[in-house]
């Protein structure tokens, strides 16, 4: 019996090797959307695709195969049986799948999974048990004979076409603009691999942690701090980004969104001065002379009050269950007396 579910299609922001794009050319389609111009991320740009229907409608029961689904690009994909040889070509799905299926069924992940700067699973002992560390090399993937390949909506179309032409079952993940979207991805991936219950438990754990943060920051008095997330090259995160969602859930106001910016935008010094945030979160790739020692920013509220910090890119760029750590890290920055560090 076939069951059918649909995935909400979302835009891929920009990144540069995992989370930081928007301007640089894409080196390999294995990373998540995010800020641009970061050494470890991939540039990707896509039009916004409107969501069609709720992915949770007609959710399949666990282990109900064959399963027919519609992916983020509108492709209908049929998975004949519970996948046993899975390849992930995005860091977000590396992180999700390592928890859902373990190294026994995960035969390949991206090389980014081993990068401690961007990966939340770099030190996970199970990662070392995954046999293959991959780039978006179609021939390498085809040779491993996977029964399911998961790619991102920003993956090079030529790579995707070659994988499909080789007869592989390929599923394209989208949903990169909010925490709710991350949770939908997790539930969808859980259905694809026959691990619905584990995916539901993962989402429930995320919701529990987020509820704790929400309760803690609700005790803060006064106006919520205005926060700017700043990456190398002057890129900032506006509304319709996971960073915006993290800031809001952490009890802050996104200064870039407040200024009317949507998605990732490259701004000049004058724009930053006009925003005048109370706190600034820097990507690890921002040099000191670009911001901390830049005399232009000396009068910013965030600089005067010494609230300019660097938060792990693995947290801030996460497109998996680990995005919760980003919320906790931002909430600790804004309300250290109320929220513990992750």
Provide the descriptors you would attach to this structure in a database record.
5-stranded parallel sheet; 342 residues; alpha/beta; 15% strand; Rossmann fold; 12 helices; 6-stranded mixed sheet
Care to describe what's here?
Strands 9, 10, 11, 12, 13 and 14 form a six-stranded mixed beta sheet that branches. With 342 residues, the chain is α/β, with parallel strands linked by helices. The longest helix is centred in the middle third of the chain and has 22 residues, at 196-217. It has helices at 91-100, 102-105, 138-143, 157-165, 179-192, 196-217, 242-249, 255-258, 269-275, 301-304, 313-316, 323-334, and strands at residues 4-6, 67-70, 76-79, 86-88, 106-110, 132-134, 148-152, 170-173, 226-231, 235-237, 253-254, 264-266, 279-282, 308-310. Residues 1-32 and 36-62 have low confidence and may be disordered. Strand 9 and strand 10 (235-237) form a beta hairpin. The chain has two domains: 4-206, 3-Layer(aba) Sandwich (Rossmann fold), CATH 3.40.50; 220-334, Nitrogenase molybdenum iron protein domain (Rossmann fold), CATH 3.40.50.1980. The N and C termini lie far apart (44 Å).
